[in-house]
Amino acid sequence: MHLTSILLPILSLLATAQAGCYKREQSIGWGVEKTAAANEIGLAASPGRLAGFFNNGQEKTECHKLAENKAVHFKVKWLGEGGLTLRDGDCYTRLRNLVKQCDKGGEDTISDWYFSADLRHGSC
């Protein structure tokens, strides 16, 4: 078992988290696409995509079309020193929380990991 597989969940509980839901007045909400957005995270939060190994400052992004004029932009960034592996389960949980808890998307920084789920007009 990798050390990061053990440490990340523990650090997640101990670390000071900074989370925020977007409050854009003219922004669209998830609407009926909330479930679709949560399902897309299952695809995005896998090694070689948004999870896996990160070097210091490395950012990974993906865009998923949800409807004719609606898309979600996912972003994950490692802010800590050196390199570290983000497990797909941890990536999934953090991004899914942003979709489930934030009506217009949001961002979260925990244990030097930055996550965002940004709902936007238009396509990818």
Features:
five-stranded antiparallel beta sheet; Killer Toxin P4, Chain A; alpha+beta
Q: Layout of helices and strands, plus pairs?
A:
Blueprint: H1 3-14, E1 18-21, H2 34-44, E2 52-54, E3 59-67, E4 70-78, E5 84-86, H3 88-101, E6 105-110, E7 113-121
Antiparallel strand pairs: 1-6, 2-5, 3-4, 4-7, 6-7
Helix pairs in contact: 2-3
Please explain how this structure is put together.
By secondary structure, the protein is α+β, with helices and mostly antiparallel strands. The chain has a single domain, classed as Killer Toxin P4, Chain A (2-Layer Sandwich), CATH 3.30.430. It has three helices and seven strands. It has helices at residues 3-14, 34-44, 88-101; strands at residues 18-21, 52-54, 59-67, 70-78, 84-86, 105-110, 113-121. The strands form two sheets. A five-stranded antiparallel beta sheet has the order 1-6-7-4-3, with helices on one face.
Percent in helix? 25-40%
- Give the distance, in angstroms, between the N- and C-terminal Cα atoms: 37 Å
The CATH topology turns out to be Killer Toxin P4, Chain A
What strand order characterises the main sheet?
1-6-7-4-3
Poorly predicted regions are: 10-17
If you average the pLDDT, what whole number results?
A: 86
CATH class: Alpha Beta
Main pleated-sheet profile: 5 strands, antiparallel
Count of distinct strands: 7
SSE arrangement, N to C: HEHEEEEHEE
Number of helices: 3
Level-2 CATH architecture: 2-Layer Sandwich
Strand content: 25-35%
How many domain modules? 1
Radius of gyration: 14 Å
Signal peptide: 1-19
Keywords: Signal
